[in-house]
Design brief:
six-stranded mixed beta sheet; disordered C terminus; five-stranded antiparallel beta sheet; mainly beta
């Protein structure tokens, strides 16, 4: 299998920075940016050079390598460069200068610390943590003479030795013996090597490639476009031309001077294109070419009305802004998710019923590119409308759809119901019997079993509006002001947005039951019992005194009892009057 890839760039950097103090930790990081046409694993060989000398090498399947220096020394100062080799291709980074400030303090030792005049002093100066080449400066200081200095260059060692012959020039004659102190110093520094320079003539193996697109302008989505990349080479063997878009390889040719890439323009093809030519370690690339073209938008599905009654006509229309020449089709999404073709047209007119409930979408095709409408029109049945108030919303639906429905609790929908008229409402007492005890509240319920919600219910008492409720299929009314002399019955009406209007219930007459208190019952009893007791007393008196008063007195007592609506159980003759 051919491995299509290219090494875009190789970068080198130092952490924490390119300037660090002596003794601080430091890392040299090499990163490779590689584009691949296929998904495959690629091994990278990383090589780090310092001043042209190999200092680090590693093989990895990752795009980064790290060369760590635990304690940076002055000898780590220099120009670093990284080279990445993979699959026969090689690319190097730019040079990075790293500077380690300060040096390790040199160590100076002497063979003897006390010598006689005429003896030779042997000195050794070393830098155990530094690397050659180094230059050492030895200096002898005598308080009574001019300082003397020697310098030694060490190309391969990190130490140096030298000899001094101390001479006492002004020895005091009056003393038997004397000590003269000499001070020796050692100074070291990195040695800079001089180089000769040679000039070479360099011939280009190929020229910078050119990249063009056809047509160069006014590209519309669906058009056929062609991208060409070409170069002029001295030797065709080993040439590779690579076309990339946003660092993704689109096409590649070997041992050819021209590359062509053709495709139908889609939204994914818009972006920056780049052409690269490689031969061995040499590579050149074009400036990026930005290709942008006109996209035709997704079609929009609209309805001829925001509300529609059952058995009425509804027209669905599909359109694309700015495009007239497009092939449209309108489809219906079934409950199982399948699409059912309805008509190849921009418009669809139908008479809607409850069984038309479903999701409708629109498709458009321009130059072979097909797109589905952003919206899906969902026609709802009356009974699917539950809860909440009337609302018209236009919000996005998952999957780039817009659902039109009359259910506000699905809060991201645009509502378009098929409106069914309300049925004649029924008004009844919640307790079941059309009666109420005087002084107790009356609870009524009004129902309409059919009709697209929301339904507005209005309660009346004797022709006066008592309460208005908006709900789905029923509403309740609590009358807490029941009076014995209330005239007129109760009724309710129901209406929704259907054009048929309002429906009214039958009149409900309520029986008011009066329940008397104990004192009221006592008063009534007294009212009836007192006359009865009086009549009984008169009757007894008559029997006792009959002979004295005669039948005329009985006649008077009978008249009194008749006036009180009490008929005595005795009879009298008319001649007794």
């Amino acid at each position: 299998m051919l491995l299509f890839f290219t090494i875009n760039t190789v970068e080198i950097k130092a952490q924490p920075s390119a300037k660090v103090k002596n003794g601080s930790p430091m890392s040299i990081i090499c990163q490779a940016d590689i584009s691949k046409k296929n998904d495959f694993q690629l091994r990278h060989n990383f090589t780090v050079f310092k001043n042209g000398k190999l200092v680090f090498m590693i093989t990895s399947d990752k795009g980064e390598a790290r060369y760590g220096i635990p304690m940076a020394r002055s000898s780590d100062t220099g120009d670093y460069e990284c080279t990445v080799e993979a699959g026969g291709k090689m690319k190097s980074s730019n040079s990075l200068h790293v500077w380690v400030t300060g040096m390790t303090k040199p160590i100076l030792t002497a063979e003897k610390k006390e010598v006689l005049e005429g003896e030779v002093v042997k000195l050794r100066c070393e830098l155990p943590e530094e690397e050659p080449p180094l230059t050492f400066f030895f200096r002898k200081i005598n308080m009574n003479s001019t300082p003397k200095e020697k310098h030694v260059s060490e190309l391969y060692r990190n130490f140096s030795t030298t000899e001094f012959n101390p001479v006492i020039e002004h020895l005091l004659q009056s003393r038997v013996s004397a000590y003269v102190y000499f001070f020796f110093f050692c100074i070291s520094k990195l040695k800079r090597l001089d180089h000769d320079f040679l000039m070479y003539s360099l011939a280009e193996p190929f020229i910078k490639p050119t990249l063009i697109a056809k047509p160069s302008r006014n590209i519309t989505e669906g058009d056929r476009m062609q991208i060409e990349c070409s170069t002029v080479v001295a030797q065709i063997r080993g040439i590779e031309i690579i076309l990339q878009k946003n660092k993704t390889i689109l096409n590649s040719v070997h041992d050819e001077k021209h590359l062509k890439y053709s495709t139908v323009a889609t939204v994914e093809d818009s972006g920056e294109y780049l052409c690269k030519v490689e031969q061995g370690r040499a590579s050149k690339m074009t400036n990026s070419l930005l290709i942008d073209f006109t996209l035709f938008p997704k079609p929009v599905l609209t309805a001829s009305a925001f509300r529609v009654d059952e058995n009425k006509e509804l027209t669905l229309s599909c359109s694309i802004s700015g495009f007239r020449k497009a092939n449209f089709s309108i489809l219906r999404r079934n409950s199982n998710g399948d699409l059912q073709w309805l008509k190849n047209s921009r418009n669809l007119t139908m008479r809607v019923y409850v069984n038309n409930t479903g999701s409708y979408i629109c498709k458009a095709e321009v130059k072979g590119i097909k797109k589905v409408s952003k919206s899906s029109l969902l026609l709802s049945s009356p009974l699917s409308c539950v809860r909440s108030q009337t609302a018209l919303l236009s919000l996005p639906f998952p999957g780039n759809e817009l659902v039109i429905l009359y259910i506000i609790y699905i809060y991201y929908l645009f509502f378009l119901p098929i409106l069914a008229p309300v049925s004649k409402p029924t008004l009844s007492v919640v307790s079941g019997l059309p009666e109420v005890v005087l002084g107790k509240p009356l609870w009524l319920i009004c129902r309409s079993v059919m009709g697209t919600p929301p339904i507005t219910f209005t309660f009346y008492k004797g022709g006066e509006v008592k309460k208005i409720v908006v709900n789905n299929t029923y509403a309740t009314f609590l009358d807490e002001n029941i009076r014995q002399n209330d005239i007129g019955g109760y009724k309710c009406d129901a209406r929704n947005h259907h054009s048929s209007g309002m429906k009214t219930s039958n009149v409900l007459n309520i029986t008011v039951i009066v329940i008397l208190a104990a004192w009221q019952k006592g008063m009534i009893a007294a009212f009836f019992l007192i006359p009865i007791a009086g009549a009984i007393a008169l009757t007894l008196w008559w029997f006792l005194f009959k002979k004295k008063t005669g039948n005329k007195l009985f006649f008077l007592i009978s008249l009194v009892m008749n006036a009180l609506q009490l008929k005595p159980c005795v009879c009298f003759r008319s001649e007794d009057l």
